[in-house]
Amino acid sequence: MEILSALRKNFEIGKVSESADPCESNYAMTKYIAEPFNALSALGLILAGSNAMHQSRKYNFEVRFSVLGFSVVLIGTASALFHATLSPVTKAWEEMAIIWATFGWMCILAQISNTTNKTPSIAMFLALAVGVWVTQLGLEPRILILGSHILQTVACAVNLYLLNKCVEQYCNLNLLACSPKDFSFNINPHPSVLKLQLMARWHVGCATAAFIIRAGGVFFCETFINIQPHALWHLLLGVSCHYGLQFAMALRQSILHKAPPATSWTLGGLLGCVVPTEVPSRAMGAQLRWLLKMAGVDQLDSV
Q1: Directed axis angle between helix 63-85 and helix 88-110, to 10°?
Q2: Which strand (E) or helix (H) includes residue 273?
Q3: Beta-ladder partners of 273
Q4: pLDDT band at residue 224 under the 50/70/90 scheme
Q5: Is 43 buried (19+), middle (13-18) or exposed (0-12) by CB count in 10 A?
Q6: Of 91, 92, 44, residue with least CA distance to 72
Q7: Percent of the chain predicted with pLDDT > 70
Q8: pLDDT class for 6, splitting at 50, 70, 90?
Q9: Distance of alpha carbon 268 from its chain centroid, rounded?
């Protein structure tokens, strides 16, 4: 508790505006943590990013995926510190981390099929350097938050376009709804492709729900204060980040190995993660069995 109190004193260099201070009552439960529920719920982001960093190293993905996972960890860490201290410094780091993550996500989606280009990794490191420089300018929280939200809106729109393009190009499916292309080119999609599309839909759905709840918490704070809308936003954003990271790694692995996307689903099909692709012979065997099943052939006659 003394450590938290010392951190709070060190970070208190100014007052955060009301727009940056969510509607959870400040220091209501303890004098050491300003908003316990909001601070604790940020652990979901830390877990999602840490899991992606672990899988990226375990399955030998490029550095860009570890960097993207670290950016999500940084979002969760900065958010937890901000809600524990209500410091403008930690708020600046939180906004910087969110912009960095959305920019990194854009770089990865734009270069998802490039096997040799290191531009995404370099661009992500340069963006981090610019973000760190901006946090040291001492801008007012109101100006920083406004600029951050404008950039986030533009980046999210671009990322949604790139995500839909990836799903259409590599899954021959539509991201958000059924389209004539789904029926004309891919009448019976491979199950692994459908799972990859489901990951992308979970990513977009959870992110959309998170921002709706965040907006509702801002405009109807007194009405929804008992359900902790900002904490719920953290949890939904963590789930969205998890599925976004898993989708990117599964699609990248599928492109590099020229095999169907490899994912594993638990909790009754609610939690999906990327897994190593099967060796080519097994992958081809799985595809052949699926094609035979679609053709109505249960077994082959012996020769």
Answers
A1: 160
A2: strand 271-274
A3: 264
A4: low
A5: middle
A6: 44
A7: 70
A8: very low
A9: 21
| Mean pLDDT of the region 137-156 | 77
pLDDT: which is higher, 262 or 53: 53
How do strand 271-274 and strand 263-266 relate by DSSP bridges?
antiparallel
Q: How far from 216 is each of 3, 109, 210, CA to CA, in Å?
A: 34, 30, 10
The whole-angstrom separation of Cα 163 and Cα 3 is: 43
Q: Are 31 and 102 in contact (CB under 8 A)?
A: no
Residue 139, judged by CB atoms within 10 A of its CB (0-12, 13-18, 19+), counts as middle
d(Cα 68, Cα 242) in Å, to the nearest integer? 11
- C-alpha span between 153 and 164 (Å, rounded): 17
- Give the tens place of pLDDT for each residue, 29-63: 888 888 888 899 999 999 999 999 999 998 888 88
* Structure confidence by residue, pLDDT tens digits, 194-205: 889 999 999 999
62 and 121 Cβ atoms separated by less than 8 Å: yes
The two counts, helices (H) then strands (E), for the chain are 12, 2
Q: Which residues, at least 6 apart from 296, have a Cβ–Cβ distance to it below 8 Å?
A: none
CB 210 within 8 A of CB 236: yes
**Which pTM does this prediction carry?**
0.79
